[in-house]
């Protein structure tokens, strides 16, 4: 029996949901890779506390999930991302983490609204994935065959995670009959799905996302502290520290970002809502006209309270459990149902 695995190779985190006969597993880690140089010499002054995990694919060796400098990632907005070697390697490493040697896999992943209707890209991506693969993990090969591949619009993963449980049982039958709007707020994109029952009517690009907010915070910090202009600070550096707090440390200095963060998050939430309103208006609808408006995605954790002034008078707003993992969970459920 094949294992069903949903993978959301997002711009910020890789999220994995696997469903087998024995157990359901969820996993996430930063979407970064560090190339392991086979010729470099390292000297540990003290014995390392933990051994790093090295993943090797066709001679390319990486560690994944680190923060810091000298890291690479497939994260970008171009459609070429989804058939790039980097994206394929990131996907295969995620699958190998949840797969046993010799196992068959039913895979489901997702793409944003901007690229959802590109059939050529989706076909090529499926062809690159649907075959035998080997990922060597710390010297031990994990070989698996992807028997079937499915590529969905990212918010459809959210829909699947809300309407069905991990066994494929329908738990929200009302959503299968009504007009539903799904707003999936990620790092690089906010993706929107207009659903009529279980039918996708329209996929929309919701405009700004969390990267936009953190670019504003970084610009604000550099305006207040000109010495930071010369520093190679990334928005992901900032997100890691500011996700649950207001202080950003760089070097040996701590910066208070509380006011800048409030302004940036408020601007971003407002921009997303206005873009979504314009998109649904083109379909002759408003946010109030939907039976359910579902907010999900990693960005929701940061922006939820900033959406409230725009949505607090509505009675149709819903948030799924584990909203950050919802897409991957839904992809995994879809793979299980189709497998």
TrEMBL record:
It comes from the Bacteria. Residues 182-306 form the Actin homologue MreB-like C-terminal domain. InterPro entries: ALP_N (IPR040607), ATPase_NBD (IPR043129), MreB-like_C (IPR049067). It holds the Pfam family MreB-like_C. Residues 6-157 form the Actin-like protein N-terminal domain. This is ParM/StbA family protein. It comes from Paenibacillus mangrovi.
């Amino acid at each position: 029996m094949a294992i069903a695995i949903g993978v959301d190779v997002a711009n910020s985190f890789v999220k994995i949901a696997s469903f087998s006969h024995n157990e359901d597993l969820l996993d996430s880690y930063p979407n970064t890779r560090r190339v392991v140089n086979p010729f470099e010499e390292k000297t540990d002054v003290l014995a390392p506390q933990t051994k790093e995990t090295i993943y090797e694919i066709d001679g390319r060796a990486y560690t994944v999930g680190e923060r810091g400098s000298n890291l690479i990632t497939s994260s970008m907005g171009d459609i070429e991302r989804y058939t790039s070697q980097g994206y394929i390697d990131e996907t295969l490493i995620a699958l190998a983490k949840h797969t046993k040697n010799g196992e068959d896999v039913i895979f489901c992943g997702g793409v944003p609204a901007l690229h959802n209707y590109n059939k050529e890209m989706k076909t090529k991506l499926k062809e690159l994935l649907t075959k035998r693969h080997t990922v060597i993990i710390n010297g031990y090969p994990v070989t698996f065959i992807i028997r079937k591949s499915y590529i969905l619009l990212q918010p459809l993963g959210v829909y699947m995670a809300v309407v069905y449980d991990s066994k494929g049982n329908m738990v929200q039958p009302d959503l299968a009959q009504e007009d539903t709007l799904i707003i999936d707020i990620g790092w690089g994109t906010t993706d929107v799905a207009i659903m009529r029952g279980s039918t996708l009517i329209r996929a929309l690009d919701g405009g700004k996302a969390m990267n936009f907010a953190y670019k504003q915070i970084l610009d604000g910090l550099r305006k207040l502290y000109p010495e930071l202009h010369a520093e190679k600070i990334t928005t992901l550096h900032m997100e890691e520290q500011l996700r649950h707090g207001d202080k950003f440390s760089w070097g040996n200095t701590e910066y208070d970002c509380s006011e800048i963060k409030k302004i940036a998050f408020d601007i971003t939430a407002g921009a997303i809502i206005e873009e979504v309103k314009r998109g649904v208006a083109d379909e002759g609808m408003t946010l109030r006209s939907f039976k359910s408006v579902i907010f999900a995605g990693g960005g929701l954790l940061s922006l939820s309270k900033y959406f409230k002034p725009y949505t607090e008078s509505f009675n149709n707003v819903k948030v799924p459990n584990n909203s950050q993992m919802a897409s991957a969970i839904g992809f995994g459920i879809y793979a299980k149902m189709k497998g």
